[in-house]
Amino acid sequence: MIEFTPDGPFAEKADQLFPGRVRVIGLGQTGAAVCDQLVLHGRPNQDLWVFDSDQLTIEGSVVPNRHLLGRSLVHGLGCSGDIDLAREIVALEENRLSSVAKGCDFLILVLGLAGATGVSLAERLVELGHESGAKVIVIGVQPFAFEGPSRRERSVQAIANLRAEADSVLVLAHDRIAENPVTQKNIRHGFHIMHQLMSQTAQALSQVVCKRGLIQLSFADVRSLYGRYTGSEVLENCWAAHVEGDLHDQADDLVAELLNCPLLSDESIWKRVDHAIVAVSGTCDLGLADVQEMVSLLKDRLPVNVPIATSASLDEESNENVRMTVLLATTAPARMSVPEIAATIENPAPKKKARAKSDTVPLPHVKPKAKPAREPEPVIAQEPPKKPAPPRKAAPVPPPAPVTVETQTIADEELMPVSAIEAEVPVAVAKPAEIATPRRYVAKQEEMSFEGPPRGRFEKTHETMYRGENLDQPTFRRRGLKIKV
Amino acid sequence: MFWGKSRNIVVALEVGSTKVAAAVGEIRPDGTLALLGIGEAGSGQVRKCEIVDFEVAQGCVRDALAEAELKTDVVVAEVYLAISGAHVRSTNTRVTTLISSDGDEITQENVQELHDMATAQPLPADHAIVHHLLQHYVLDDGSTTDNPIGLASKQLTAHFHQVYGLATRLQTTIRCVKELSIEVKNYALSSYATAQAVLSRNQKQLGAIVINLGGGISDYIAYQKGAVVHSGVLGVGGDHLTNDIVSGLKIPYAKAEQLKKTEGSVILDPAESEATLTLPGAYNFEERLIYRNSLNTIMQARQAEIFEIILEDLQGAPFWPDFAGTVYITGGASQVKGLVELASQVFPCPVEVAHQSPFDGDQNYGRRPDLSTVLGLLQYARQAEMELPPARGFARVGQSLRRALANMRLI
Prior knowledge:
The structure holds two protein chains of two kinds.
Chain A: H1 11-17, E1 22-27, H2 28-41, E2 47-52, H3 55-60, E3 66-68, H4 71-74, H5 83-92, H6 94-101, E4 106-112, H7 116-131, E5 135-142, H8 149-165, E6 168-173, H9 181-185, H10 187-210, H11 219-226, E7 238-245, H12 251-259, E8 275-282, H13 288-301, E9 308-314, E10 322-329, H14 342-346, H15 400-409, H16 411-414, H17 418-430, E11 465-466, E12 469-470, H18 475-478
Parallel strand pairs in A: 1-2, 1-4, 2-3, 4-5, 5-6, 8-9
Antiparallel strand pairs in A: 7-10, 8-10, 11-12
Helix pairs in contact in A: 2-7, 2-10, 5-7, 7-8, 12-13
Chain B: E1 2-3, E2 9-15, E3 19-27, E4 33-42, E5 46-47, E6 50-51, H1 54-72, E7 74-75, E8 78-83, E9 89-98, H2 108-119, E10 127-139, E11 144-145, E12 155-166, H3 167-178, E13 183-189, H4 190-198, H5 201-206, E14 208-213, E15 218-224, E16 227-234, H6 238-249, H7 253-262, E17 276-279, E18 288-291, H8 292-315, E19 326-330, H9 339-346, E20 351-353, E21 360-361, H10 372-387, H11 393-410
Parallel strand pairs in B: 1-7, 2-8, 4-21, 8-13, 14-19, 19-20
Antiparallel strand pairs in B: 2-3, 3-4, 5-6, 9-12, 10-11, 10-12, 14-15, 15-16, 17-18
């Protein structure tokens, strides 16, 4: 292979055009999981960092640079959604964060938008990144609808805050995969799919913004698609898909596989998609003709005709496989859509252009002074997906000192195997004298069912959820009222 | 036979969870409305005001319209449609413009500009607007007015109550009618339509909340100082009471529905704790003894929950601290015994059964609360027709002719 070395008279300027220092920071539980995916399936040599206030998350991560924040405040127990507590942690860890924000040209922050720690850290890191001259791209994911209105509202606020400051914000939505059979079978698989997609998105972005290649895009292309909105007028604005395989004689299959990716299988997204970025990487065998063939195949198969910006680069680590990541975007301003007949009824006269309101969305570099308006709050949350039960978070690590003491007091019993404890029960029944001893409750771990009890007449309808309760279920049952039949 | 597209004939259509109702009215030359008749058909495959099976629902709409045509001798060509469903949401919004005319006088253009700006307000993705209801205008000195034209002010702010819903579901309901070759002339939020039937101008001014308890949903709307200040739709209705009875007492749906209507109450009476009633048997159902207390407990729990959720939503709205009006209850599910007593226990304000405003024409329907929405929609249609610009040229001649014929018929 002939290696190209930019040693001409404009070599230095070329380097400035494509600065290469990208740092991916995973924030909170979701961010850590995404960075883990990058390590496990992506490029372990990337500059990866993980921050969280939950010790379990940090201990479970495989990223070398992982840091537990706010130990003195929350003892590794996390913030449990307390945004004020998370901001205190951010203030406490200011020095550590500012050192991480320095020394790179691009910061890619990955987080779940409903988590307190991740969002608070992201807000501060965006500011610190800008202070140190870095461009900041945020990849966030909205929570499932069944996780409740409070988490959703928090994510909407987070989107508005981050868009007001960050250069580009890519928002994916968990609900897009709610109907996926894999998710319905096991919600953890759904989270896993999303984490993989986010990691591939981060990888594609780092390729686009910094890597020289056969076909070069730049940060401006990313910003033009994902930096347009400055508030929460549009929430979900990114749909990602990734495929990897042998290119030779299989380009058609690869493209078909790409279009079957979970986020793209929902047909409703094609009404919103208006731009696409395709990032292709492969070994030195990858030629421009191959890239062109793949992109033209993709263009032919896309249900909508959208402009596609292509980035292609060579990657030594791709094991003779070609990787193709598609990032779809919506850039249209959020305009009211009026059903067919309303156009003539509500506004019979031709519309006059409003003077005090701009028809175009402000450019990304124009930052609004005031905080952007929030999305109109729903009167009552009504449209959850069919999976009501939220996934249980693993029990956080207890604070060191008190738990140690408690563990010592019950150490003998705790070490007893469950089978032995259960075996005690018939013995206790047999000997009435021992019945008076304090009864042991053994936590029983069961598989959580996502199919609720039958809803009778409302089986075919969308569930009506309110404060985490499925209102289609009988009230007397939910409230534990006894009915004499 | 009268052509339903005439300016004098208006048709209101409600595709509810329990029934489809089509009301035909006639606008008289003096602007009053006369009800000609109502066609009804039981709803099939409509749950929570959303169509589950398109073809079945369309058949029900066809039946209701056919009955209305038969009763009123009117060929229905266009309808006003009631819109509701758990997907419908609302919010209050305001827009401001600067006045740059001579002497800072507010003109029609300024008002139109505010309406355009309100129309351009962003909505959540995949949502479409149902209503932009004007609340009031605010001048630069903070004073409010309903008609600012001619007044002087440096800036003008308009407050709107915005109602929107999922575009796909709105279109499904509209398409269900349009595919029958019937034009949907306009649509209105069900609760807004209901308020037109049961609230007078004075009641709206004093403050009123109308709760329409339907089969599949419960929708509500709040008025203060004559303007809509809050609205909402809860995807729980009378069907849920029946469904709870089915689940709790293990009886068929039809029996539960009958039991709810004839014996059920949402007030618990301690004296009836051991009282029983007999559910007669049928060829495939053995006679059953039902504890009255069990029936009432199931119903009371559900109905109280509905009221509590509505109250919680109202209490979170900005208008609530200043609200000093009355809660009016209507809708098919409001015919359950003890409903007003229960509502009075939940709501910290007077509660009354809503009575429909008197109208001319067929009086058989005036006392049925389950028809308040469709009758209110007729009032809405009348208002909309009156606000349309008058016809000109040949259209005017044709209109006059049709009006003359209509008058002759009434005479």
